[in-house]
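@channel sequence for tomorrow's demo:
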Amino acid sequence: MHAAVGPIALAGSADLGFQARSDDFAGGLALDLTGSIADLQTPFAEADALLGEAVTFKTSLTQSEDGLAVESLEVKGGHAELDAKGDLNEGFSRVAADYDLSLSDLSVLAPSLGLAIAGQLTGNGRIEGDVTAPQVAGTAALRDATLADVSLSKLDLDYRLTDLTTAPQGTLAVTGQSTYGAIAANGAFLYDQERLRLDPLHVQARSANIHADGPLDIDLASGLVSGKLRGQSEDLGKLSDLAGGWLAGRATATAELAAKAGAQGTTLSAQTEGFGFDDLRIGKADLSLESDDLLGDFSGSASLTATDLAYGDQKLDRNTPQRRNENGAGSPWRTANPWNELFDDKFIVFLFFPMNNRPVVI
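structure tokens (generated this afternoon):
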């Protein structure tokens, strides 16, 4: 079987059965259709993964002079179920329908999305407009899910989508519970098979607020991101359990991201005030970092300027004892204090130049 629904080409092996429900053929034919499609193929890898190798359906249709009334439609695939009713009008060129959708296992989407994902999704909404580029609006609920390394016990979405079959785009509003506690996000997106563009984007999780400063592009093949993010937290203490210890202070940060030769290029700047982590205290700090490969073999540079450093009741200054290396020589970039174990030589080299109230340059 080769067929098309609007601009969407379908292929597979179909087995159909039907029963007429009307003797008044002049007034329009009413039919009950049942069937199955084996080896169904669509232009969308995600749809193929959700529907699986065998799809069953049944529907009740009534033909009219203007088009077709779909009194009921039930479609069941390997990991997806759809119930819908509506109309195809104006010579089957326009659609108006309400639907309920259930996706039982999102993990089947991982290979085509290039992203670790799992969970179940249910939703309902309405689709209407030209069949070649319909609009969709609705709500969805995600439960017991994971996205990358983030666990999402509950996530509710409101969405409006346009140009669904060619270059889907629209708006999303999300609220839920995650590994990072309560989260809320809203923004607009454009999906073109190779790239996902988010513009605008705003995310709030606990005391942290993050937003995109202009378009944020995600390459779906590599997962690399290009764009600019800004974030701030007025109370880092609310993130203590995520940090694995007592945390305090406020912070602001800006990250400029770029795909460079297949690697994630990053320029980061961050500022903190009243920062504390367990026994470490820093009055003010200014961090800058540049890397051509943040997620792989790190290469780049980093610097940190800080004032009023202390570990426990000990203030860190030029008299802080130095660690000795295996040859017995003093190491100018390490002190004997255990807070240095928070850092890795691979990322940053510490050089202390404290003089009275002058900053410590690290």
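heads up for whoever presents: The first strand starts at residue 2 and ends at 5.
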